[in-house]
UniProtKB/TrEMBL annotation, chains A, B:
InterPro entries: 6-PGluconate_DH-like_C_sf, 6PGD_dom2, ApbA, KPA_reductase, KPR-Related, KPR_N, NAD(P)-bd_dom_sf. Keywords: NADP, Oxidoreductase, Pantothenate biosynthesis. Belongs to the ketopantoate reductase family. It comes from the Bacteria. It comes from Marinobacter halodurans. Its EC number is 1.1.1.169. It is an enzyme of class 1 (oxidoreductase). Pathway: Cofactor biosynthesis; (R)-pantothenate biosynthesis; (R)-pantoate from 3-methyl-2-oxobutanoate: step 2/2. Gene3D superfamilies: N-(1-d-carboxylethyl)-l-norvaline Dehydrogenase, domain 2 (1.10.1040.10), NAD(P)-binding Rossmann-like Domain (3.40.50.720). Residues 183-304 form the Ketopantoate reductase C-terminal domain. The lineage of its organism: Bacteria, Pseudomonadati, Pseudomonadota, Gammaproteobacteria, Pseudomonadales. This is 2-dehydropantoate 2-reductase.
């Protein structure tokens, strides 16, 4: 592999487009597979306004679903949402070569297994993104804040592939924390996301202050977080319980805000229910851990989805 | 008291107007206190279309809030919804005499105490209505189905006052079951309402089939019902657990429908959250019974209400 390995972004929404720009800045050839915004990106490239400067770029190739790649990429970066209707393995299969590393920049827990099972020969690199970025028009992205990645080989370890990709992100201006235990990092991110995100949706888009200041709100968050910790422990990732106090204090210190799942809900976009909550409850069941609070949220939200399907049909 | 005691309905919505009509048919003088539909009822009386026939009537007196009564009634029937913003004691205080019996035809659990505490000298008769009735216009009511009452003295017993009122309802064409333990009857009604009603609201108006057929739905209903049973038991009202199977089978047999709380939610009317769920959780806390499933629903729904207040201000 050269010093500037080839990159293909599958699912070049806000997050994929942004990290593509960073690798472009690091000198890599970056191509994209577009779904809905092919024409705009083919014509004008990707515009990104950022505190890091103007990150706009023209991808080396702009593909759309169904095209055939000219050559398999060194790194395929998958950034689509993890949703029941989206067959992620099918999305990336046409673009993979024997030596392509699969990079997941996606939310949630246990979202790697489906991909690792489908492509046992391809290394999987799992990343968590801490970023505020949004689409403002076709091929137009606004980068609001942060951008840090936490990255590791799946299911564990730090491979040379990880190290090389991390160096490239660093060269492009993004801080990367490499971890031997990326699944543990996912559990740590879930300690906040798994309680707050679905609860904000159940409460019809409540912001963090409303959640914590409602009668019984902070106690419910504590109970939900305690359940996530118990599942993480049963799954082999022990957590320090002092994290609960720290999280609540940290959340109270921030200006009230609506998390990304709440915004998806309020904008009538699908929510990553399984990635953030369903998989946690499934792992709890596997280990025989009782999670009544988490399960109540999950089942109520599944009812909503069932009702939506029913009312559309 | 004469054979046809005087009746005053406070909160003459669909339910109050209907039961007023029944007592009118039994020969009682029936007056009403209106809030919003005073003009229509003053001009045209109350129109009720029913399978029992045309139950329309002109109340003997049509009052509005702030009026002074000509004479205190023998029975004051209160039919308003039990909501945090509604001071029920203040609503009925101006109309009570020393010998007025207070009759509550209202939903939920532990909704009598506030009234009994405020008026310790006046007997309180507590009623559960099993009825389908709806308002179709100002002073216009459609009676769809049922009408049976379960009635008892609060906190327990069957007084002569109950017996007399029951006889009048029977004379007017409505079946009344008198009970020595009206609080136990309220718990029994809660075995269905407390799980199903708030859950349907959390699920944005899901009907009974959607609730039971969702992934994990029946199990969640079972867990919620089991918690209600445990609270009822701790409160002195033991229940036979076979009731859970019976309820689920009975609900599955019915055509899918949206319960009254779901309809309130979908029509942007306030829901009786405390009467149906909050009071159950409060009693659980008093007795040290853990109710994680019920509490998750309650807190999430309280967050919604807090959010609504916040967004209106």
């Amino acid at each position: 592999m050269s010093d500037t390995p080839s990159i293909l972004i599958v699912g070049a929404g806000a997050i994929g487009s942004f990290y593509g720009a960073i690798l472009k800045r690091a000198g890599c050839p970056v191509s994209v597979v577009m779904r809905s915004e092919y024409d705009a990106v083919k014509a004008n490239g990707i515009q990104i306004e950022s505190e890091l400067g103007d990150l706009s770029y023209r991808p080396d190739q702009v593909y759309r679903d169904g095209d055939s790649p000219e050559a398999a990429p060194d790194y395929l970066i998958l950034c689509v949402k993890v949703l029941p209707g989206v067959d992620r393995a099918a999305l990336i299969r046409p673009w993979l070569g024997a030596n392509t590393r699969i990079v997941l920049i996606e939310n949630g827990l246990d979202i790697e297994r489906e991909i690792a099972d489908a492509f046992p020969q391809n290394p999987v690199i799992s990343c968590l993104a801490f970023i505020g970025v949004s689409r403002v028009g076709p091929g137009q992205i606004h980068h609001n804040s942060y951008g840090r990645l936490v990255m590791g080989q799946y299911p564990n370890g730090i491979s040379e592939d990880c190290q090389r990709l991390s160096d490239l992100f660093n060269a492009g201006g993004i801080n990367v924390k490499l971890t031997e235990e990326v699944v543990g990092e996912r559990w740590r991110k879930c300690l906040w996301n798994t309680p707050f995100n679905p609860l904000s949706v159940l409460a019809e888009g409540a912001d963090t202050d409303t959640i914590l200041d409602s009668d019984g709100g902070e106690d419910l968050i504590r109970a939900l977080t305690e359940e996530v910790i118990q599942v993480a422990e049963a799954d082999g990732y022990p957590m320090d319980r002092s994290i609960i106090d720290k999280q609540i204090a940290g959340t109270r210190k921030m200006t009230a805000y609506k998390n990304s799942m709440a915004l998806d809900y309020l904008n009538d976009r699908p929510i990553e229910l399984d990635a953030v909550l369903g998989n946690v409850v499934a792992i709890a069941r596997k280990h025989g851990v009782a999670v009544p609070h988490l399960n109540t949220m999950l089942v109520a939200l599944r009812m909503r989805e069932k009702l939506k399907v029913k009312e559309r049909s």
